[in-house]
């Protein structure tokens, strides 16, 4: 009888312990297949972090994507059942008080809000974090990782302190504090990714951080756009932006005409207009590290070449993006009195941007300008998608092979001369621009997901 009581007592004592062990194993199993991706910025304007989320979801992970939802992410992300987007609340800077106080209040709010959002989520095996901005996100993610057993993966796009230094100066106390914080917290992460080998070497030599280069690659939805889809996009954009509208009406009112294409009313066939303008496309975040006054100066020189009698096409320049300096540059653009150049600054939807870049009519030039740490400028001509910002002298050669898949310039004079050379035979297929496109089309570059599978996935399995 006593033995029965002892056995019963042992069962009552061990049952909660067995349940706790089972619960912990169940939680660990769920945690191992869950990843949190953190963007302390606009998710819709963070394509690389969207690609991380999609690649993780394709490998069977459930993904929680935290960020500001000011712009619509890509449909492929929204339609994926494994990805949940959690909105972060963005606190605008106070309009009163010293600048340092305004910034401090914002950082404290972001830290508390992000900590709360992360702790309310299911524990994750990994936390992927975009840097910059890393203040206060790196410290918060490290804290959550310690509490929940998550491993922090930082994707270094740039240095937050260096961007801050463009505004306040490199020797400002706030900039020096941000650099110390970024360096200290960055060393505590479990895995580091970066966009170029130059940044990987700089992280290793100056900060003691071992990182792995994961180049930007076009996602699967970047591909050549059929002519009828091009026409639909031009007609859609033309309803809002005048540079996409036809300069003259067709003789048949039923015929659809944009600035670049025309759809026949009878056959429905779409053709390119013979006298169409060339299209120059640039994406930007409208921040201090991208000096678009250089592009505007080059456009002025290009305009003067046309006025001097050079046989060059008129130009539609599309600068797409959102950011703090957009109004400043829009004001500068409005003061230009171009006769042969039209500039518009739309924000393209996630589905429209790859369509615009994927045109196959030899009339687009995709430009990415940067003036980061070493003040170098670069240009790359793309068939499918933009690459990383060309903001470092040492990384320029990694992304652009001069006169093979792009051109490198250091000032507006060189850029204007290169635009003249590229568009001198436009839209002749024998022109220089078409040769760039042919080289890109024939290159066997990996897509993002294939590259991610070869570089990032093995690292996660080993971490």
Can you give a write-up of this model?
It is a single-pass membrane protein. The chain is α/β, with parallel strands linked by helices and 463 residues long. The chain has two domains: 51-217 and 449-462, 3-Layer(aba) Sandwich (Rossmann fold), CATH 3.40.50.2000; 227-442, Glycogen Phosphorylase B (Rossmann fold). 43% of the residues lie in helices and 15% in strands. The chain contains 16 helices and 16 strands. Strands 3-2-1-4-5-6-7 form a seven-stranded parallel β-sheet. The protein has a four-stranded parallel β-sheet with strand order 13-12-11-14, with no helix packed on it. Helix 2 packs across helix 16 (448-462). Mean pLDDT is 79; it is low at 5-11, 17-26, 360-366 and 368-395.
Summarize the structure.
With 463 residues, the chain is α/β, with parallel strands linked by helices. It is built from 16 helices and 16 strands.
Domain count = 2
Category from helices, strands and their pairing:
alpha/beta
Largest β sheet strand count, sense and barrel closure: 7 strands, parallel
Integer-rounded radius of gyration = 26 Å
Helix content: 40-55%
CATH topology of the largest domain: Rossmann fold
So, CATH architecture of the largest domain?
A: 3-Layer(aba) Sandwich
Say how many strands there are: 16
**CATH level 4 superfamily of the largest domain:** Glycogen Phosphorylase B
Q: Specify the number of helices.
A: 16
Mean pLDDT: 79
Subcellular location: Endoplasmic reticulum membrane
InterPro entries: ALG1-like, Glyco_trans_4-like_N
Membrane topology: Single-pass membrane protein
Pathway: Protein modification; protein glycosylation
């Amino acid at each position: 009888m006593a033995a029965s009581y002892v056995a019963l007592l042992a069962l009552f004592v061990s049952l909660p312990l067995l349940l706790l062990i089972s619960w912990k194993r169940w939680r660990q199993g769920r945690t191992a297949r869950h990843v949190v991706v953190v963007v302390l910025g606009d998710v819709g304007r963070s394509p690389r972090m969207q690609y991380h989320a999609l690649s993780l979801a394709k490998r069977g992970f459930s993904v929680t994507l935290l960020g500001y939802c000011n712009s619509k992410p890509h449909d492929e992300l929204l339609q994926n059942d494994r990805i949940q987007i959690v909105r972060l609340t963005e606190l605008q800077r106070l309009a009163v008080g010293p600048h340092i106080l305004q910034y401090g209040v914002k950082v404290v709010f972001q830290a508390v809000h992000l900590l709360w959002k992360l702790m309310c989520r299911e524990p994750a095996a990994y936390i992927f974090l975009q840097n910059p901005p890393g203040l206060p996100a790196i410290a918060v993610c490290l804290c959550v990782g310690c509490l929940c057993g998550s491993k922090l993966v930082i994707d270094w796009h740039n240095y937050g302190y260096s961007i801050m230094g463009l505004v306040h100066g490199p020797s400002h106390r706030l900039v020096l504090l941000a650099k110390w914080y970024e360096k200290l917290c960055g060393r505590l992460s479990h895995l580091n990714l970066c966009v170029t080998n130059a940044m990987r070497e700089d992280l290793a030599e100056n900060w003691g951080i071992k990182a792995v280069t994961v180049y930007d690659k076009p996602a699967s939805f970047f591909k050549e756009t059929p002519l009828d889809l091009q026409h639909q996009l031009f007609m859609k954009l033309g309803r809002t932006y005048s540079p996409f509208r036809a300069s003259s009406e067709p003789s048949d009112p039923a015929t659809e005409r944009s600035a670049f294409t025309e759809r026949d009313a009878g056959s429905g066939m779409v053709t390119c207009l013979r006298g169409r303008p060339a299209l120059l496309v640039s994406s930007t975040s409208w921040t201090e590290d991208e000096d678009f006054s250089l592009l505007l100066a080059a456009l002025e020189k290009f305009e003067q070449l046309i006025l001097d009698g050079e046989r060059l096409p008129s130009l539609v320049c599309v600068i797409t993006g959102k950011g703090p300096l957009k109004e400043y540059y829009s004001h500068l653009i409005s003061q230009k009195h171009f006769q042969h150049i039209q500039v518009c600054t739309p924000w393209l939807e996630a589905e429209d941007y790859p369509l615009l870049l994927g045109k196959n009519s030899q009339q687009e030039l995709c430009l990415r300008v940067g003036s980061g740490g070493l003040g170098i400028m670069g240009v790359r001509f793309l068939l499918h998608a933009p690459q990383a910002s060309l903001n470092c002298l040492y990384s320029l050669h990694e992304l652009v092979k001069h006169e093979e898949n792009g051109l490198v310039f250091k000032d507006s004079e060189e850029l204007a001369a290169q635009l003249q050379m590229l568009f001198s035979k436009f839209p002749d297929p024998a022109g220089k621009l078409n040769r760039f496109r042919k080289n890109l089309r024939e290159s066997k570059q990996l897509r993002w997901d294939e590259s991610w599978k070869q570089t990032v996935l093995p690292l996660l399995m080993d971490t």
